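can u do me a favor
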């Protein structure tokens, strides 16, 4: 009997200790379900379809926090993207947690140091200046950055996330924050097989008194990608990114502006990139406004321009948006956009293929977002 009693007491103590430890830590399941109906005029070809993630990408994730004492906490976040219209994985079917997968430490006094696949400093800098929140499906800014364009196939774009990365984020210093990231080489199979070189990504942001400002610099080392139809691997040239963003709140109106310039290094002589002319530098500019018309209704406006240097290749676009909140977790939204490609430009919203250069793109959507 004594042995049994001791065992029960020991188990009770273990359970009590476990309860105390659990009180200092937490794990949260969260997500977004977003679906929309789309009308598209793609160079005169009209179509209707159902898609996913028009306002916010459909996703689910787990994030956790453990208080280690003395202002220090252990944290993690793993986040997967999916297409709610058909249940498939978003962008890369080979990656379980395509959107985020990181772990690290956060100190209230010294800042956070995290490791894994995570959002880049450049993305954090430019995100507040885009009325459509750099959405990967329906933001015109994202459309211009992610455009598949022959003249810039070897000029690396800033995807917003980096694998194999180490990120430092400073504490908030009276509105000022600093970010520094170094990412090691990464290889992916989708959307096209490619290997990117090491990357340095730094940013500084300031927010206060209704004003927002940010600067970022990115240096991507060379890599390569495989594109169907080409006789060999296409070189991804070392690319520098110079990014600036501004915002100013005037009553119910938030005015924003961002500009980014991607400068590619010269392609080696007789390389495939040099022979095909796929290494042009380019700039992207966006001027926008968000109007909080009521507590439940907001209006978004953005005008964008993409200009490829050394080629007749540029795109002008405008997009309007309307969001209505039914509750804190559920909202309805509408988007209407127009893009005009000039010269050899073939730009449209992400996920849409443009077969003819120099065509116009017209899009209208109605959608619903639910957060959990």
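np, heres the sequence
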């Amino acid at each position: 009997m004594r042995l049994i009693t001791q065992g029960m007491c020991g188990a009770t103590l273990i359970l009590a200790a476990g309860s105390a430890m659990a009180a200092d830590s937490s794990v949260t399941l969260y997500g977004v379900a977003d679906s929309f109906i789309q009308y598209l005029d793609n160079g005169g070809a009209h179509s209707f379809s159902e898609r996913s993630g028009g306002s916010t990408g459909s996703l689910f994730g787990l994030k956790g926090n453990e208080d280690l004492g003395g202002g220090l906490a252990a944290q993690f976040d793993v986040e997967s993207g999916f297409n709610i219209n058909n249940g498939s994985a978003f962008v890369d079917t080979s990656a379980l947690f395509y959107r985020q997968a990181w772990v690290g430490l956060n100190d209230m006094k010294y800042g956070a140091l995290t490791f894994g696949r995570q959002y880049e400093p450049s993305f954090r800098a430019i995100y507040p200046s885009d009325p459509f929140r750099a959405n990967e499906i329906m933001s015109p800014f994202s459309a211009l950055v992610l455009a598949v364009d022959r003249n810039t196939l070897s000029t690396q774009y800033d995807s917003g996330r980096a694998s194999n990365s180490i990120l430092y984020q400073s504490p908030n210093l009276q509105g000022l924050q600093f970010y520094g990231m170094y990412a090691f080489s990464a290889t992916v199979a989708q959307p096209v097989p490619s290997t990117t070189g090491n990357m340095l990504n730094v940013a500084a942001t300031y927010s206060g008194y209704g004003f927002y400002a940010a600067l970022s610099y990115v240096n991507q080392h060379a890599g390569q990608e495989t594109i169907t139809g080409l006789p060999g691997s296409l070189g991804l040239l070392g690319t520098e990114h110079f990014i600036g963003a501004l915002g100013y709140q005037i009553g119910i109106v938030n005015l924003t502006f961002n500009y980014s310039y991607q400068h590619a290094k010269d392609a080696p002589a007789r390389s495939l990139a040099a022979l095909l002319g796929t290494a042009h530098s380019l700039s992207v500019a966006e001027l926008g406004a968000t109007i909080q018309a009521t507590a439940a209704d907001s209006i978004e406006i953005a005008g964008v321009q993409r200009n490829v240097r050394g080629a007749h290749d540029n795109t002008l676009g405008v997009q309007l948006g309307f969001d209505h909140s039914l509750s804190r977790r559920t909202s309805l939204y509408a988007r209407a956009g127009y893009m005009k490609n000039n010269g050899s430009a073939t730009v449209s919203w992400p996920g849409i293929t443009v077969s003819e250069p120099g065509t116009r793109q017209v899009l209208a959507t109605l959608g619903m977002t639910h957060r959990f």
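Residues 1-23 have pLDDT under 50 and may be disordered. hope that helps!!
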